[in-house]
Amino acid sequence: MRINIPTASSIARSNQTYRRIVDKYRPDLAYYESIYRDLHSNPELSRQEKRTSSIAVNHLKTIGYCVHENIGGYGLIGVLKNGHGPTVLLRADMDALPVRENTGLDYASKKTMTDSNGTEVPVMHACGHDVHVSCLMGAARLLHAARSKWRGTLICLFQPAEEFVTGAQAMVDDGLYAKFDIPKPDIILGQHVFCIEKAGVVALSPGPVMAAADGLKIRVFGKGGHGSMPSLCIDPIVIASHIIVRLQTIVSRELQPGKVGVITCGKIQAGTAVNIIPDYADLELSIRSYDTRVQKQLRDAIERIVRAECNASRSPQDPVIENSAHAPVTVNNVDQTESLKTSFSDFFEDNASAMEPLPGSEDFSVLARAINVPSIFWMLGGCNPVKWDEAERSGKIGEIPMNHSAEFAPAIEPTLRTGVDALAVAALTFLKLIASPA
Predict the structure, then answer these.
(1) Residue 45: DSSP 8-state
(2) For residues 244 and 314, what is the distance between their CA atoms, to the nearest angstrom?
(3) Contact (CB, 8 A) for 332 and 205
(4) How far apart are alpha carbons 321 and 333 in whole angstroms?
(5) Residue 417: helix, strand or coil by DSSP?
(6) In this predicted model, what pLDDT tens digit does every residue of 221-264 receive, in sequence order?
(7) Helices (H), 165-316
(8) Alpha helices, DSSP H only, in 95-217?
(9) CA dist., res. 22 & res. 428, Å (int)
(10) Which terminus of the chain is less hemmed in, N or C, by CB atoms within 10 Å?
(11) Do 285 and 218 form a contact (C-beta atoms < 8 A)?
């Protein structure tokens, strides 16, 4: 069914009802705090989220959701049909990162796993997906308990492989919207914890909120030989080094002032020994912007520079340039976002704020683009409030460990409570509310 956009007046009338529902049916969060600690201690790499998935499956089944699992890997959905009304999908991602944790927490991860290249690596929830899973599990219980207060269909989706930016598309390709007897979602909602904001804060804005991202794998070729005789070789490490330096001029010298673009070389690999000049060098890049035209400009400039540097260095063959990943820009639908901003502002009061666009990327919007429905994505603050206030007073907010850091450590509370409440309030904003004030 077509979702009705709540008006400011209707939301204002409903907000006390939202608060009564959430306060009345909010589950015991101590249980979800223990789930969070367990997930944090037992992270799983992308496409290997078997244990995490099973925890979510068992939880949803116990509550009373109809569960469909192993979608696009270890993805799953829990479906709660509750009469005639809109269909709202809430999403959380599950995977962790190949990072060795250095938080000093008593529940810190000490886990290692074998990655997709066959290498044993440390694993850490360094991007807060353990928070996302715990919050969605809590919101699922809250909304199930409050089912007498609303009508519609609720879908709780737990997604694999977000860090590869492939998990959402994998679920779509595996029949997420075709295989199962579920209504087409009218709106898709999600959140992400960041320690660049204080725990307890929810930040939301319309329009672009996270950048598009493309991954590139590049191989440049040389002529290998003995390290003592570089004149008889063509050194691909030197070629790669020139490329990396030259790439830094694209944003500063080619991109129109005011446009946003980021090019990062996150990986360079070449050679096997100190006295051998190798035959090739590999680079892996990420490109980010909020505009598809800028994204293409950056991609074209990278290819031009790579080919030119190889030609200038007498590379014996053309470089290989391959796309390795893609995530579209995350854009919040304007009308629905304004409605949710009103709900959040009334519910969270001073802890509701505007969300500045972030250069990080997500595949969240793939779930909405696949069926041409609106989506909204908001930021959940995670930094310990005391540490945040100290950092703000001393001008050291930039020193707070951010996502993907080995020291990334969201405060358990009030982060979990805020995340559970935000998902519940967002769902109630777009479901058919039938609650009375009592």
Answers:
(1) B
(2) 17
(3) yes
(4) 34
(5) helix
(6) 999 999 999 999 999 999 999 999 999 999 999 999 999 999 99
(7) 167-173, 236-253, 292-312
(8) 129-145, 167-173
(9) 10
(10) C
(11) yes
